[in-house]
Amino acid sequence: MARKKRRTGAKRRKPQKPSPARAPEQTPPAAPKPAPEPKEPRSGLQEPRRKRVVLMDLPYGRIRQWEFGLRRWRGLKVLAAVLVAASLMGFAFGLYGLWHWQTLRALKQQNHELRRELEKTVALKQELQRVEQLRRRILYLMGALSDTSDSAVLLAMARQMDSTEARPRGWPAHGLVTRQFSDLHPGMDIACPVGTPVRATAPGLVAYAGADSLYGKLIILKHPGGYETLYGHLSRILVVPGWRVRRGDIIGFSGNTGISTGPHLHYAIRRQSRYLNPLPFVKDTLTP
Q1: What percent of the chain is predicted at pLDDT more than 70?
Q2: How far is it, in rounded angstroms, from Cα 254 to Cα 275?
């Protein structure tokens, strides 16, 4: 029984068939490995990595990028700042030019209006002269005046004063004599700044006050005794023909009008259509 148990308990091993020998697989030859680069010896301090700026653009699904170094990026920022500053300065100068142009246009318009007002003033002055002549004519017709001519008025003035009082004397304006009386220059030139007051040197009547081709703005006064005084190259006239003036009255202001080489007053004296040397008259400052 013991033998049976041993036989039954032992398993029989089946003989294994030898497996067919497999052909060895052929593997591709391996690529030669590159020789390792020699490593530099590490120092105690590591080299810092350079900072860079990357700009990316995504137009229609494509990626575009620009890479700049930090120094170049700073340069681009400085250039952009300079361009922005230049643009702002150009805009400011443009606004200033526009304002200046508008101001100049307004000044031109104002100048044009002032010219029109001046033309109206001159026309009004001429109208006043015509009215004054008409008034004197009406007074003559009414019998208030025996005669409206200048000679009659001067004769009436001569009756009220003596010959020494009607004689021109004194300086018509303060200044320096730059040209004396001569045959080629019938008068005296007194250099003085533009705007110097010009005074009548004797009582009389305004015979002419207007423009002259040679003496510019000119005033001619007639005085009792046959004297006439001329004031030329004026800048402004304050009297009109027919007015009576006294000695020392301001009749205008000196200027540089007409044929003149500089600001001065041309002063001349004539009697019975003959010019006299004004020097003895201006030096005669004694009161009658």
Answers
A1: 64
A2: 22
